[in-house]
Amino acid sequence: MILNGINWLIVGLGNPGSEYEGTRHNIGKDIVGRFKKRFETFDNVEVLVPDTYMNLSGGPVAKALGKDKQERRANAQYLIVVHDDIDLPFGDVKVSKARGSGGQKGVEDIVKAIGTKDFVRVRIGVTPVFLGKQRKPRGSRAVSSFVLKKFGILERKEISNIFDRVSRVVEEIVKYGVDSAMNKFN
Question: What global pTM score does this model have?
Answer without folding.
Answer: 0.90
